[in-house]
Amino acid sequence: MESTMMELKKKVSTGIHGQIHTKVIQRRLDGSIDFYRDWSDYKKGFGNVSGEYWLGNDNIFNILNGKSYSLRFDVQDWSGEWRYAQYKIFKLADESKGYEITLDGYTGNAGDAMLGSLKYLTDTRFSTKDHDNDDMPTAKCTDHTNGGWWYQGLPGRWCTKVNPNGRYFGDASTTSTPLSKVNGGFSAYQNVQSHYILLAAAFFTGYR
Q: In what order do the strands lie in the sheet with 46-47?
C-alpha cells in the first residue's frame, strides 16, 4: 500500500514546474473500512492514513478556506488500468451550509461523472445516513448508495454517477446502482479496485 502511495505522489509531481502541494482526502483500497457512516464521522474524518480513510469535511473545508485548489480522482479498475478526473475549481461551504460543493473545469480520461452537461452535483449539499440533504422527495439516496457523498436525487435524475464512498464489492461486479467508481471512462456501473481523491494547490494536467 505504501509503495502504491509513493508511486502516486511521484506521478502527481511529474511534469510540474517546481513543487506542488497535494493532500489525499480519501483513499479506498480493499474495503477494510466501513464508509456507511453518520454525519459526525464524516465531519471529523475516520479510518487510517496508512490504509483507507476520509479526511473529514471540516478538515477539507479548513484546507480549502481562502485558498485555490483543484480536485482530482485517480481510479484503478480490476485489470490494473488507472484513469483520472480532475476539476480545476473546487470549493466547499462550511457545515452550516451542508458542505455545499462547487466544481468546474473538468479534464481527464475517467469521464465527467461529477458534473456532466447538466452540472449534476455542483451546488449540492453533503448527505449521510442520518443527514438527508438530497433532493429525492420520497426516499434517501444514502439508503441506495451506502455511503456519504454529495447526492442529488432530483426527479428523473440519478442520486449520483460517482460514489467513491459507497459499498466496496471486492470485484468487478456490475450492479443497478453506481458504486465505488468514477463513471464514464470505464464501462457503466463498474466497481473499481482502488482510488484516491486528492487536492492540489494549483491546477495541473493529467499524467496519463
A: 46-47, 53-54, 22-28, 194-200, 70-76, 82-92, 101-108
pLDDT by residue (tens digit) across 93-114?
999 999 999 999 998 888 887 8
Which residues pair with residue 84 across a beta bridge?
74
Residue 91: which of 131, 64, 113, 116 has the closest Cα? 64
3-class SS of residue 42 = helix
**85 three-class SS:** strand
pTM here is 0.78
Question: Residues in the chain, how many?
Answer: 208
- Is the CA virtual torsion 175, 178, 179, 184 positive or negative? positive
CB proximity list for 112: less than 8 A, separation 6 or greater:
85, 106, 184
C-alpha cell at 127: 448527505
Where b means 16+ CB within 10 Å and e means fewer, 124-144 reads bbbbbbebbbbbbeeebbbeb
Per-residue pLDDT reduced to its tens digit, 159-178: 877 788 888 876 655 543 33
